[in-house]
Amino acid sequence: METSMEMSPSLTLEQMREHLATFVTDPYAVYQQMREQTPTEFVFLPAGVIPGLDESFKAWALMKYADVYHALRDHDTFSSARNPLIEKGIFPRLVLIADDPPRHTRFRRLVNKAFTLRRVEALEPWITQVANEQLYEMGRGEVDVVQSYTIPLPVTVIARLLGIPGEEYPTFKRWSDTFISALVSISLEERMKNTQEMVAYFGQIAAARRAHGADDLITALVEAEVEGESLEEWEILGFCILLLIAGNETTTNLMSNILNVLVERPALWQRLREDRSLVETVIEETLRYESPIQQLFRVAARDVEVSGVKIAEGDMVMVFFGAANRDPLEFPYPDEFRLDRDLRNHVSFGMGIHYCLGAPLARAEAKISLNAFLDRFPVLKPGQAPAVRQTVSPIVFGFQQLPLVLESGRP
């Protein structure tokens, strides 16, 4: 079956990357076209599109809300651990995300306490202070809010939780971008170099915490025991890498998407300034409307039938969060941004045992940030420079550049 997600083998590698980048920046027309045809098998990684990838990879696309919802909750059938892309070294393994029970259960129990609602609420005054400091440093006029705010704030917050210097956020962001990138020409050597830098950095921090503990997450990992056994070094480093990457990518893209939605809706901006009870609804509707995580892999652990289609054991499955969140059977008029929806069941943070560990923190950062912008800026306007969507990875949906004109209304 030919779809706009398929690519002719006659295309050059550069044309393939451009085709994929176009889909990444605006996937919703494709979702609308394909949703009712899914599950359908498609080539999601053509041979050569990633340096070192010498074969094509196919997966079954799940785009209907019901199919996505059930796949996310059925971790026995749809495995997170049995991923050939990881086994072949194309993508690195992330603990928790690429684990199934019982290993996932043990690890999740270990870090859950670091992201409880109570712990997040205790951090909120400090996050508010950091948010206001960054807004003050941004100044007024035309500002790229991605580089000036939506990148540094989440990285600073996750750095504090880990117990590492937040001012090194440009390096952390480079590591993160390289880690998730799939559609840019980064050599395997460059990917390996960045990964080795990350591992060496966290290895030094872990060693320091063993010698002198601190009140941070890395100390908790170093001192933790799971069923009477300490974590191995690679497990500790894997946790650090996971938390650094997942802790900034989702929140950076969520906050950028919120500001982009609102700059296109000046009447809604004014309504929010007058009625802050709508802030959380706007955040949840943005999560549905422009999901910061668009897709993740699973592998069928056994033969299964989905919407009348048979998927064989061992087949790769692509679960499209963004498509499910715009399924008209679950969310009427899905391409409209509305505040009168029941948003309890959007899948932007997943479902089941892999529900996003950092969801409470991401929501808190988004709420604090949106209120801080509303307090400071009576009007939000688009900048003269163009907004640029990220194109390095089909997994995330957000901005590489989002210029806004910020005027405080004060002399």
Written overview of the protein:
It is a single chain. The chain is an alpha+beta fold and 411 residues long. The chain has a single domain, classed as Orthogonal Bundle (Cytochrome p450). Helices cover 48% and strands 13% of the residues. The strands form five sheets. It has a five-stranded mixed sheet. Strand 5 (225-226) and strand 6 form a beta hairpin. It is globular, with a radius of gyration of 21 Å. The mean pLDDT is 88.
List the helices and strands and how they pair.
Layout: H1 13-25, H2 28-34, E1 40-45, E2 57-62, H3 65-73, E3 78-79, H4 84-87, H5 103-112, H6 117-138, E4 141-144, H7 145-150, H8 152-162, H9 169-180, H10 188-211, H11 217-223, E5 225-226, E6 229-230, H12 233-263, H13 266-274, H14 279-289, E7 295-300, E8 304-306, E9 309-311, E10 316-320, H15 321-324, H16 359-376, E11 379-382, E12 388-389, E13 399-401, E14 403-407
Parallel strand pairs: 2-10
Antiparallel strand pairs: 1-2, 3-7, 4-14, 5-6, 7-10, 8-9, 11-14, 12-13
Shape designation: globular
Helix count, DSSP H or I runs of 4 or more residues: 16
Rg computed from alpha carbons, rounded to a whole number of angstroms: 21 Å
What is the oligomer described by this structure?
single chain
- At the fourth level of CATH, the homologous superfamily is Cytochrome P450
Question: What is the name of the CATH architecture?
Answer: Orthogonal Bundle
Order of helices and strands: HHEEHEHHHEHHHHHEEHHHEEEEHHEEEE
